[in-house]
TrEMBL record:
GTP binds at Q10, A11, G12, G13, K14, G110, T111, G112, E142, N169, N187. Keywords: Cell cycle, Cell division, Cell shape, Cytoplasm, GTP-binding, Nucleotide-binding. PANTHER family: CELL DIVISION PROTEIN FTSZ-RELATED, TUBULIN-LIKE PROTEIN CETZ. Involved in cell shape control. It comes from Halapricum salinum. One of its GO terms (cellular component) is cytoplasm. It holds the Pfam family Tubulin. The lineage of its organism: Archaea, Methanobacteriati, Methanobacteriota, Stenosarchaea group, Halobacteria. Its main location: cytoplasm. GO terms for biological process: cell division; microtubule-based process; regulation of cell shape. This is Tubulin-like protein CetZ.
Length: 392
């Protein structure tokens, strides 16, 4: 699937940078174009792979490149005011070559949580391609203002995009882990899961052919349910061999071949269960999901149609959905067989209920919260009196 990725805010920009690194390392070709938008000059300067001409500094007249200090109302206002600056960079994206837009943002801060819904609404008004969001929920130890931002932004973001894919930091931070190392690992997990999902169906040019093809239309159809989506992942290391491929999967002329086929099938069905019932990007009960997509990735000789079909049927039973798609994504050099499951239109999500409650309670002390945001912004400006060489 070819995506135009737009990282909004600090977290969004870093994750887009990680996706570009993933593309370089794997040759998956997911990112057709990459853009980073921010109100903080330092965050844009810290990116490594997003092209300089695709880094957009907004709000210079309001915050002078210092960021918005976790004030997501200010972030939304600036995005509205400077939407033409963002659009001028998006105009350079060859939209006829992309399958969808993906706006990536941390929902706890100010710039991403405030600006990403504004951009989503703008893109949907102009383009016919789907506009998806990838929203990162803050962990509970980041503070009340970040939880409130996430609660407010989530409600707006999910309304403005065609589907909101969610990653909940609270379910992934390890106890005692530093903020910096913790989020670096989390970003790796995000890119690994969504990289395999969006990489399915892309032609690698080395002659590998999937038995059950998953292309961009399968992903689009799965996400067409709208609402909120979560992704599961499980992998197992295998002994890779250079032989095999599509033709070898149909050979079963000996007892040994039959045993290998049975082992392959059992491994696939086991990985499907682990992916669905293990740690999801947004923890939830999988029953009631409106649609699902199963993607198996790994060496061609470790994938077979029977295992994929069994995994798909099991997923149908567990979700209660009749719209469960499935297929494989052969990668000959891989040392792992991996299962990725996309669950779209999930409903039974405790974290979302918690955020909704936070949003309701926040209305009672909104003045106090606004004062905290203003103090954060003032302190940020005082501490960061432009020590960087201007590049914008």
């Amino acid at each position: 699937m070819k995506l135009a990725m737009i990282g909004f805010g600090q977290a969004g920009g870093k994750i887009v940078d990680k996706f570009l690194e993933y593309d370089e390392r794997t040759g998956s070709g997911i990112v057709r174009s990459a853009v980073a938008v921010n109100t903080a000059k330092a965050d844009l300067l810290g990116l490594e792979r997003v092209p300089d001409e695709n880094r957009v500094l907004i709000g210079q007249a309001r915050v002078k490149g210092h960021g918005v200090g976790a004030d997501n109302e200010l972030g939304a206002e600036i995005a509205e005011e400077d939407i033409d600056e963002i659009q001028s960079v998006i105009d350079n994206i060859p939209v006829h070559e992309v399958d969808a837009f993906l706006i990536i943002a941390g929902l706890g801060g100010g710039t991403g949580s405030g600006g990403s819904p504004v951009l989503a609404k703008h893109l949907k008004r102009i383009y016919t391609e789907p506009v998806y969001g990838l929203g990162i929920l803050p962990s509970s130890d980041e503070g009340g203002i970040y939880t409130l931002n996430a609660a407010r932004s989530f409600q707006t973001f999910v309304r403005e995009v065609d589907n909101l894919l969610v990653f909940d930091n609270d379910a992934w931070r390890k106890t005692g882990e530093s903020m910096e190392s913790g989020y670096a690992e989390i970003n790796d997990e995000i890119v690994k899961r969504f990289g395999i999902l969006f990489g399915a169906g892309e032609v690698t040019g080395d002659g590998e052919v999937a038995e059950s093809v998953v292309d961009s239309s399968e992903i689009v159809n799965t996400l067409a349910s709208g609402g909120v989506s979560t992704v599961g992942y499980a992998a197992e290391e295998v002994e890779n061999s250079s032989d095999g491929g599509l033709l070898s999967r149909f050979k079963s002329d000996s007892t040994n071949d039959s045993m290998e086929a049975a082992n392959t099938t059992n491994r696939i069905t086991s990985l499907v269960r682990k992916a669905a019932l293990g740690r999801l990007t947004l923890p939830c009960e999988i029953d009631g999901a409106e649609r699902a997509l199963l993607v198996l990735s790994g060496p061609p000789n470790e994938l077979n149609r029977k295992g994929i079909e069994r995994g798909r049927k099991w997923l149908e039973e567990q979700t209660g959905s009749m719209e469960v798609r499935g297929g494989d994504y052969p990668v000959s050099e891989s040392a792992y067989v991996a299962s990725v499951i996309l669950l779209s239109g999930v409903h039974n999500v405790p974290r979302i209920k918690e955020l909704q409650q936070v949003a309701i309670e926040a209305q009672e002390n909104i003045d106090e919260i606004r004062q905290e945001s203003e103090e954060n912004l003032e302190q940020l400006v005082e501490d960061d009196e432009d020590e960087l060489d201007p590049l914008f």
